[in-house]
Design a protein that fits this description.
It contains 6 helices and 6 strands, in the order ββαββαβααβαα. The protein is 40% helix and 16% strand. The chain starts with a strand and ends with a helix. The protein is globular.
Length: 172
C-alpha cells in the first residue's frame, strides 16, 4: 500500500487547484501549465497538507457525493494551517454524476473555457467557526511538527483573474 501523499508538482510560484483524481490533475495540468494542479493518493486525513500553507487554493471536486465530501475535508484541513479564504468551484445542477474537470476536458473544453467556467462558478469556501475550531484542533494534533504561519504573511484571495491574464499572455 502506498503512503498517502499529495499528487502533482507543487511549484511554489503557482496558484494551486486541487481536483479529485490524479487523471483529472494530469489532464488539467496539461491544459493550464500556469497552475499547480494537485490531487492526493490514499487517506486524505493522513496527508500532511502543510505544504499548501499560505497558498492560493481553489478546490474543484467531481460531481459525486464522495468526491465533494472528500474535497470539503481537504479544504478544511488546508484552511486550518493558514488559508482563511479559499475558493470552491461549484457544480452545475444540469451536469451528470461524476462530472468534473476531466469530463469537461474530454468533452472538448479549451483552456479559455475552463477559466471562464471557474471564474463564473467560484464561490468563497467558508466554514462555521465551531467546525473550524474542531478541525483545527484535530489537525494540529495529527501534524504538530509545524507551527501555523502568520496570517499577516498570506494573501488570502485566490485570483482566477491572474490565471486568465497568464492565459491571455500565453495565447498572445
Amino acid at each position: 500500500m502506498r503512503k498517502p501523499r499529495i499528487y502533482g508538482d507543487l511549484d511554489n510560484d503557482k496558484q494551486v487547484v486541487i481536483v479529485s483524481t490524479s487523471a483529472a490533475a494530469d489532464a488539467l495540468q496539461a491544459v493550464l501549465p500556469s497552475l499547480a494542479v494537485l490531487s492526493w493518493t490514499g487517506d486524505k486525513d493522513k496527508i500532511d497538507w502543510t505544504p499548501l500553507i499560505r497558498r492560493r487554493v481553489v478546490c474543484w471536486a467531481d460531481k459525486a457525493l464522495p468526491s465533494m465530501s472528500d474535497m470539503a475535508g481537504v479544504a478544511a484541513y488546508i484552511r486550518v494551517y493558514g488559508n482563511p479564504s479559499m475558493k470552491l468551484i461549484k457544480q452545475p445542477d444540469d451536469k451528470p454524476k461524476g462530472w468534473g474537470p476531466l469530463m469537461m476536458l474530454q468533452a472538448g473544453a479549451s483552456a479559455t473555457d475552463i477559466i471562464a467556467f471557474c471564474k463564473a462558478n467560484a464561490v468563497d469556501l467558508s466554514f462555521p467557526s465551531d467546525l473550524f475550531a474542531k478541525i483545527s484542533t484535530e489537525y494540529r494534533a495529527k501534524h504538530a511538527t509545524r507551527p501555523p504561519p502568520a496570517i499577516a504573511d498570506y494573501d488570502p484571495e485566490p485570483s482566477i483573474e491572474d490565471i486568465e491574464a497568464e492565459l491571455a499572455a500565453r495565447e498572445g
